[in-house]
Design brief:
Layout (H helix, E strand, L loop, with lengths): L7 E3 L2 E3 L6 E6 L2 E10 L3 H18 L4 H17 L1 H12 L3 H26 L11 E8 L2 E5 L7 H12 L3 E5 L5 H14 L6 E3 L4 H10 L3 E7 L2 H10 L6 E5 L4 E5 L5 H13 L9 E7 H16 L19 H17 L2 E4 L18 E4 L6 H4 L6 E7 L2 H9 L3 E2 L1 E5 L3 H10 L4 E4 L15 E2 L2 E2 L13 E8 L8
Helix pairs in contact: 2-4, 2-6, 3-4, 3-6, 4-5, 9-10
This protein binds nicotinamide-adenine-dinucleotide.
Nicotinamide-adenine-dinucleotide binds next to α7 and α8.
Length: 490
């Protein structure tokens, strides 16, 4: 069967790019398998998408909340009906295991459900005047055309939790998925179209961030940019968008610490270090990448950890026996292996894994062994920079205070965890940990849709997405005061 070529979706029509060129979306577990060809879009394609969104905004902004809710309720049903197919395609193009893909789709459905309900609450909040003779209220208004730029590691969930509040608030959208995972984004768009999103309201465009990304930020009709991706690209967007007063919401990289104190439940801590360190091959923004162990339990913890890491089965995510899939692409693989070499040069000790897997089923994919470095010093690059792979950097400390200091000694501030039975130290950690989300006896990757999600320091900027604040970013306020009579209001 010929490999399918997928199109952009602009102004209610599926369309080829003006470039007449495409790029291949490949399976990272078998790079000879091309999942599909996608449009290598140009600035002229983008211009059409933005203008179509701007035209559609004039009508969509005045659509009723019930009308928008109705569309998203249908989309939720369609997502549920197609979850098996979506999970399968997600695993084929991203590499995560089928179980991880299922979890992502369920999580996306939950995010959508919550944001639809939250839109109703947030957009209908009444105001009250301090005076009996004045009526006042405030409304939240949509911004206009917004750019949604997303990464490959959560190719359904991240677009879902951005596009839902953006459209529910009455904005129109130009959405660009990452080039490793365009099919997942496209399938979500197909569902929204089928659910009834009108022409021009949601536009889908594929292509290189380096070709069309800048213009998705600098175009004068773009009123806001919601971006999830690397800190490097996020910082660039942060400089460009304010030049024409576009709002930005940036969710970026992490270097998340898990602190294990001497009184921790070690079995629980090891189980969570495995899931937060190696799920999705360590490619979650909230993955644990630094393990900060109290010296008293470090050796015992590491013995237990190595025993569990040995049980990880690396392979094709479609194989039910696999517990860790490939990394998402060749560039990822090169980046991770170069950090492993760097760690060795820096003087850390690689006590487990870290090699590219070869032979038989591994030769055609981007497979790497889960890795553990010990004797890591906080100032080493492997303890400072986001590797975004299945690599745990372990540091031993002598006290809670030292653990806290090491945990905070990075430029990122996304997520953190502490494992202890001591409530006083746990709460001190919660107060002093420099992150956007923190946990006690839970993995760094744990989140629920009703809470805001975003980092601080170089991990996040602007109003965080999801939760109660998710929709706020996509709106602006208007306060209205009415004097119903002709009384003097001085
Ligand atoms: P990336 O920054 O390379 O790409 C993200 C998106 O930005 C892609 O769609 C890409 O095409 C686009 N892009 C690239 N250059 C651009 C430019 N100049 N202007 C505008 N857009 C541009 O990131 P990635 O490799 O896709 O994803 C991995 C990164 O995402 C990691 O750093 C990870 O921590 C981060 N991430 C963060 C969160 C979070 O919520 N904080 C969640 C998931 C992933």
């Amino acid at each position: 069967m010929a490999t399918k070529t997928y199109l952009n979706f602009i102004d209610g029509e599926w369309a080829k790019s003006d470039s007449e060129e495409t790029f291949a979306d490949i399976n990272p577990a078998n790079f000879r398998e091309v999942i599909g060809f996608f449009q290598a879009s140009t600035l002229s394609d983008l211009e059409r998408a933005i203008v179509s969104a701007a035209t559609a905004f004039e009508k969509w902004r005045f659509s009723s909340l019930s009308e928008r809710e109705e569309i998203f309720r249908k989309a939720i049903v369609l997502l549920e009906q197609r979850k098996e197919k979506l999970a399968l395609e997600l695993t084929r193009e991203e590499g995560k295991t089928l179980q991880e893909s299922h979890k992502e789709i369920l999580s996306a459905i939950n995010e959508m459900r919550f944001q639809v309900g939250q839109a109703r609450r947030f957009l209908s909040e009444p105001g009250t005047s301090g005076r009996r003779d004045i009526v006042c209220y405030s409304v939240r208004q949509p911004l206009g055309v917004v750019s949604i730029i997303t990464p490959w590691n959560f190719p359904v969930n991240v677009p879902c939790r951005k596009i839902t509040p953006a459209l529910m608030a009455g904005n129109t959208v130009v959405f660009k998925p990452a080039s490793f995972t365009p099919l997942s984004g496209l399938m979500l768009v197909e569902i929204l179209i089928e659910a009834g999103i009108p022409k021009g309201v949601l536009n889908f465009i594929t292509g290189k961030g380096s070709e069309i990304g800048d213009r998705m930020v600098t175009h004068p009709l773009i009123k806001a940019v919601s971006f999830t991706g690397s800190t490097e690209v996020g910082m660039k967007i942060c400089q460009q968008a304010p030049l024409h007063m576009a709002k930005v919401q940036l969710e970026m990289g992490g270097k998340n610490p898990m602190v294990v104190l001497e009184d921790a439940d070690l079995e629980l801590a090891v189980k969570d270090a495995i899931s937060a360190g190696y799920a999705c091959s360590g490619q979650w923004c909230t993955s644990t990448s630094r393990l900060i162990l109290h010296r008293e339990i470090a050796e015992q913890f590491l013995d237990l950890l190595v025993d569990e890491v040995r049980k990880i089965k690396v392979g094709d995510g479609l194989d039910p026996k696999t517990t860790m899939g490939p990394v998402a692409g060749e560039e990822q693989l090169k980046k991770i292996t170069s950090y492993i070499e760097l760690g060795k040069k820096e003087g850390a000790k690689l006590i487990f894994g870290g090699k590219r897997l070869t032979g038989y089923r591994y030769d055609r994919g981007f497979f790497i062994e889960p890795a553990i470095f010990t004797q890591v010093k906080p100032e080493m690059k492997i303890a400072q920079e986001e590797i975004f792979g299945p690599v745990l950097s372990v540091m031993a400390v002598d006290s809670f205070n030292e653990a806290l200091k090491v945990a905070n000694a990075v430029k990122h501030g996304l997520s953190s965890s502490i494992y202890t039975r001591d409530l006083v130290r746990a709460m001190e950690f919660v107060n002093k940990s420099e992150v956007g989300l923190t946990h006690i006896n839970l993995p760094t990757s744990f989140k629920e849709p009703q809470l805001p999600f975003g980092g601080i320091k170089l991990s996040g900027y602007g109003i965080p997405e999801a939760g109660r604040s998710g929709i706020e970013f996509f709106t602006e306020n208007k306060s209205i005061y009415i004097n119903p009579g002709s009384e003097n209001t001085e």
